[in-house]
Amino acid sequence: MSSSLPSRVTLVDVGPRDGLQNEKQAVAAAHKIELVQRLQQAGLREIEVTSFVSPKWVPQMADGAEVMAGIARPAGVRHSVLVPNMKGFEAALATRPDEIVVFGAASEAFSQKNINCSIAESIERFAPVTAAAREAGLKVRGAVSCAVACPYEGEIHPDRVELVVRLMKEIGVQHVGIADTIGVGTPRRVQAAMERALKHYPLAEVSGHFHDTYGQSLSNVYACLEMGIASFDASVAGLGGCPYAKGATGNVATEDVVFMLHGLGIETGIDLDALVDTAAWISGVLGRKPVSRVANAMLARRAAA
Amino acid sequence: MSSSLPSRVTLVDVGPRDGLQNEKQAVAAAHKIELVQRLQQAGLREIEVTSFVSPKWVPQMADGAEVMAGIARPAGVRHSVLVPNMKGFEAALATRPDEIVVFGAASEAFSQKNINCSIAESIERFAPVTAAAREAGLKVRGAVSCAVACPYEGEIHPDRVELVVRLMKEIGVQHVGIADTIGVGTPRRVQAAMERALKHYPLAEVSGHFHDTYGQSLSNVYACLEMGIASFDASVAGLGGCPYAKGATGNVATEDVVFMLHGLGIETGIDLDALVDTAAWISGVLGRKPVSRVANAMLARRAAA
């Protein structure tokens, strides 16, 4: 209970990529560029900007090169992009990202349904991508999806998380993000998955990625903080839905995580008011309210004041 | 991190009282009676049914006697009612509740604005109520509001929580509920308040009452579980708003707590599917969606299936 928590935490805003990719409504490149700009101004220092996936599969991200070209690239801000294969990597490389994100599932059924190959084949496919990225001086992050449960297989054993983490390590991936893709994880299950990642990666190179579909994400962040984990993905305004439960919520909202971290006395470098402004703005672009509890409460208080 | 958690947790559904009292829309007595009935059928064994406060102040609860008379009273289910003074207690007593709830704030400003007297005066007022309730064989629960922060004073020091807890103990209150009335609490602050309650009451007689205004409530429940606390208030469908941030959410949703507890392997005796049915039904009565993430995700999955 009174274990010490990290004094500083890094948040990676994945709203421009994971968030907007899962919104029903298309967003113009100019709005995506403004979103990244606003996040930077609010103090975010790591942003997952876009992906270089076939527009046939992910039309929402077809403007990846335009977005990367349009954003300001201030010193100290790291921009990552998700790539599925060498073709995507080459397109990505031309836009000079700081990091690339590769991915693998801890569930065979999910790997098959999502990218039409086995887990082992997906990692093999990422081996040359990882090598080329490191050759080019880019950092490679690996996202391990379905690390707690799978929409097709149900609960996923930590052994299977460890297997993917180990395979990623073997091909040279430098950081692993453990993702509860469908948001059903609870603290002890998430900790069990994290423990397996920590067998192969140091604390500084393991992060958590939690969806708030069942409202559990902040508890999971807290449980990870107790393990010393100090990096988390989050999405401004809670952008992004859940493809496996239409109408449900997506990524944990960055504002909600920041509120908790600041309440715990943990530094983030993020200006919560500016972040809430950003949440209100992008939600306005999408024609709806933020999903974030913090954004809604703060906006309600502002309206009353 | 790996401290053991309680194996069983009791949830007190306060939706019929704290929830509906803070909804804009009035709810008919027949619907309140059905709500209590449905909660009992879903496995809730403690329900805060109504209050006996002047209808001038709380018109939503003016039908307290009618509701208490209309609900089934199966063995093993405990029904509590909130009372503000001897007059309220006498009205309550006639309806044969199992428990009464008295209250006090950890903030002077809140006490003055909410009930127009000092903290010390409020406790004095509850002394004869508590004595009379115990004489009548009823259990007395004390709710300590603003235990983390106050809408008028800001942050509340744990010393002040301890003061109210001690005063409640002195007048014979048998259980204290530590309430984060405005939902700004984060795990360590909540634990600091809880530690003070545990100086005066045993683990079994301390509970948590968290509002989800800023999305922090489940993390706070988890932090309390790590201390061994095994009783929490919650509100089906997340009923109840926040009078201090109009448009924001109210009590933590019972479904969300149940989902986390079951995920942690903790027994509650509650049937989550039946609880979600109840959340959908009462939300329909109110003409809106549940606030609960779990209810919305489970309803979305059902709709897709």
From TrEMBL, chains A, B:
The question of whether Lyase is a record keyword is answered with yes
EC number of the protein: 4.1.3.4
Sorted alphabetically, which InterPro entries does this protein's record hold?
Answer: Aldolase_TIM (IPR013785), HMG_CoA_lyase_AS (IPR000138), HMGL (IPR043594), PYR_CT (IPR000891)
Q: What is any Pfam family matched here?
A: HMGL-like
All residue ranges annotated as the Pyruvate carboxyltransferase domain in the record: 9-276
Q: Which pathway does this polypeptide act in?
A: Metabolic intermediate metabolism; (S)-3-hydroxy-3-methylglutaryl-CoA degradation; acetoacetate from (S)-3-hydroxy-3-methylglutaryl-CoA: step 1/1
Q: Which one GO biological process term can you cite for this protein?
A: ketone body biosynthetic process
Q: Keywords, A to Z?
A: Lyase, Metal-binding
The chemistry this enzyme catalyses reads: (3S)-3-hydroxy-3-methylglutaryl-CoA = acetoacetate + acetyl-CoA
Molecular function terms from GO: hydroxymethylglutaryl-CoA lyase activity; metal ion binding
The family this protein is said to belong to: Belongs to the HMG-CoA lyase family.
Give the matching PANTHER family: HYDROXYMETHYLGLUTARYL-COA LYASE
Q: What's this protein's name? A: hydroxymethylglutaryl-CoA lyase
**Source organism (scientific name):** Rivibacter subsaxonicus
Q: What is the lineage of its organism?
A: Bacteria, Pseudomonadati, Pseudomonadota, Betaproteobacteria, Burkholderiales
